[in-house]
Amino acid sequence: MNLSTVFTKQHVSIFLIWLFHVSGILGIIYSNASWFVRATPLNLLLSFGLLLINLKRDQKALGLLFLCFVVGMAAEILGVRYGLIFGEYSYGAVLGPKVFEVPWLIGINWCILTFITGSIAAFFSNSFWLKTLLGVGLMLTLDLVIEPVAPVLDFWTFSEGLASVHNYVGWAFVAFPLQMGFHHWKIQIDGPFPFHLFILQFLFFTILLFKINSIGI
Length: 217
Description:
Helix content is 70%, strand content 5%. It has 217 residues and is mainly alpha-helical. The longest helix is centred in the first third of the chain and has 28 residues, at 3-30.
């Protein structure tokens, strides 16, 4: 793989995620909100596909992807069916087909979040424990802005309304070993793609959070 191929691949990937996320923000706020919200699975799949393209896909990386999916799904199933780990909540219809009441795309989302936050954390530190904790912190930061918007978009709803501290402790509990795996196996993602995807997800949900009283879904 030569430098020009990598350069093109990264920039096309970054362009596409900016296009889809910005279109989603504008569409939800100013246009047919329901249509753009229903397109969320497509956005997640695109993000995951582009992550795979930019990922160094060796045996360790693919194994960790599988582990993130299985662990994420198992934790969510325990949460939805038994109120364990995250609290009592249920998923809406927007995120698509479900396995034991949990959309399988949620497992994909755990893969995406673990890999992009792990990659960002590795950029800032060489210390195993520091970058593991930083990765967990970045995942929690995204969850903080997603949770207030999720019920409005029919992603998921907690029985008590908004997510409690229980949920965030649960996120840290699940995210910590996944981040450990990412840094232990030194997973590599080409270029700045993880930074762009993290920033876009943060902006997407933060902007919707500020507009939550006027989007009228």
